[in-house]
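Appendix B. One record, verbatim.
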Amino acid sequence: MPAAKLLLDHLDLLTKLEHSLPVLDLACGTGQNGLMLARRGTPVVFSDRSSRDLETIDRHLTEEGLPGNTWNVDLEQPGVNPLSNDAYSAIIVFRYLHRPLFPALINAVIPGGLVVYETFTIANQPYGRPNNPDFLLQPGELTSVFQEWETIYEFEGMLRNPDRIGAQIVARKPF
């Protein structure tokens, strides 16, 4: 599966970041987005709860000599902030929503760092899964979460291949 179009469209911003700190691919799944960055020399931390997906990513990192590592973590443990001691130059998130993580995510990005985020909105329900409102953004919600950041790009509406209704944002944390 290729990397997300949103990521590809803003790749230049991510590759120009100071990479003394890695990029976090949050809830990375099979890791296609983070692997694309790692193949361009960007160190990436791949986080997910699926050990099977992370083992596959580990093989790619080792066989291709890519900068990065995997982190097997349950991001949804009640009362636990899995990012409490972490700092990243950027965090990328695709097709994942766990609202309690928003404050932790905001705190984990260094000043001047980026967030690239795309997930489904409540308007996606007619298109199939996910259709649980807990996993779907309300209109304007993603923009509201990052309202104090510099918005570089935002979009909410129909996304293609596959058809879905989503929200996207690329934002820079203030210095």
